[in-house]
Structure formats: C-alpha cells, structure tokens
Write a structure and sequence with these properties.
Layout: E1 3-12, E2 15-25, E3 30-34, H1 41-49, E4 56-61, E5 64-65, H2 71-77, E6 79-82, H3 94-102, H4 109-115, H5 134-146, E7 152-156, H6 164-179, E8 184-189, H7 192-198, E9 201-206, E10 209-214, H8 222-227
Parallel strand pairs: 3-8, 3-9, 6-7, 7-8
Antiparallel strand pairs: 1-2, 1-4, 4-5, 9-10
Helix pairs in contact: 3-5
C-alpha cells in the first residue's frame, strides 16, 4: 500500500478537525474525497503532506512511517501535492516555476518532457505565472508537481475557479497520470461530475471522519445529489 492512515487526528489550536481517519489507498488507485466546506478535506491533505501535525495516529507512505517527517521529507519520498489555490510563484516565468519543481533533481531538458503533457504551457514559458488564467495556473501547478517525479499526488479542488474548457483538459491530464503514468491519486473535490468522471471510489467526509464510501456511479443518484445540493457545480 502506498498510503496507510490509522486513527489519524489533527486540530487547529484547540479545535479538532480530523477525528480518527482510518483508510488505505492501494498502489495505482484513484480515490476521491467528497464533502461540504469545513468538513476537513483540505486539512486531511495538509496533514498527509506534513503541513498540519498529526495529533494522534499514523501515516505510512510507501512502507515508511512519515507521521513525524517534514513536508520536504515526504516530497523526497515521492508524495506530491497540488494545493487549493495553486500557489505558483506569480512573479516568476512559467519556465522558472517549472525549474523550481526540478530544483536539485536535474536539468532543464526534463522541462520538455513535462511539456509534452501540457502543450498549452509551451507558448507561455516566458510569461509570468501571475499573468496566466486560473486554468493555466492550475496546469502549471500540476506540471511543477510532476517535476519532482512523485509516486502519489494529493489534489485539493483542482477545478475551483476554472473555466469549463480547462476542466475538460484537467480530466484528460489526470486520467493520463493515472492510467498511463501509473500514479496513485487522492483527489479532494466538490465538483461531483469531475470526481465521478475520474475516481474509482469516493470517500465521504463529514466533521473530520470518513462516514461513507461510494462508487462513482452513486454520485449521479438523486438521493446523493440531494444530499450535496449546493456542492455540485
């Protein structure tokens, strides 16, 4: 198992956010996490990545207990993270943003390899990251993450604020990463159609706990749609 989480709990100050998450993600699996705002989705990813300390429980990645490792240690082991809001470097060019992803990992020639998956970025290499559209920034964030050669990627709401044409491109990119590149993916989303299109199974999170597991087809059922009315985009 590339990722095994046992009784994982985390908090912000005195406020508990995660309450005993206990799950596994198999090698090469694509798992979605769905829930309303404030239910702990982002905190789950940030805790897995090491930005939020685990108060209790354990995180085992690729056979190694990383519960107390810093984020850069987990990244070096192959855990990638594409955060909500992208967090690219707005003052740097697209090329330099990609170089940051390659820092300490190789030469510029590998940028060309990454760009074969993101042809939309090729004519934008000299443009500042902050001048890109939201969708282009999202593609850049994914490309930068891939520069680190991850074995598994955590995605936090990649469709947020993205135009429909780019969402279609994101579906194609994530499908290729999963099916052709063999990456393990954990995707947090509120867009039901997007998550149903890609995930092999979907975990429902509520008040910091996984309360249900669904198949993608279940997300098109009337009762599930009614439960998440206001969440689907």
């Amino acid at each position: 198992m590339p990722l095994t989480v046992r009784e994982l709990s985390a908090r912000y100050g005195r406020i508990p956010i995660l309450n005993g998450i206990d799950r596994e993600v198999a090698a090469g699996e694509f798992v979605g996490v769905l829930g309303h705002n404030g239910m702990g989705k982002t905190t789950l990813l940030r805790t897995l990545m090491g930005f939020v300390p685990a108060q209790r429980g354990s995180i085992v990645f690729d056979g190694v207990d990383v519960t107390r490792e810093p984020p850069y240690g987990r990244a070096r082991r192959g855990l990638g993270y594409v955060p909500q809001g992208r967090e690219i470097f707005p003052g740097l060019s697209v090329r330099d943003n990609l170089r940051m992803g390659f820092a300490g990992r190789g030469s510029d020639e590998r940028i060309d390899t990454i760009l074969t998956m993101f042809p939309r970025l090729t004519p934008l290499l000299g443009r500042r990251g902050g001048a890109l559209s939201g969708g282009e920034q999202q593609l850049l964030a994914i490309a930068r993450c891939l520069a680190g050669r991850p074995k598994m990627i955590l995605f936090d709401e990649p469709t947020e604020g993205i135009q429909p044409s780019i969402i279609e491109e994101l579906v194609a990119v994530l499908r290729r990463l999963h099916e052709h590149e063999g990456l393990t993916i954990l995707l947090v989303e509120q867009n039901l159609e997007f998550i149903a299109e890609l995930a092999q199974r979907v975990l429902l999170i509520q008040k910091g706990a996984i309360v249900r597991e669904l198949q993608p087809a279940d997300l098109r059922r009337a009762d599930v749609l009614n439960e998440f009315v206001g969440v689907a985009q």
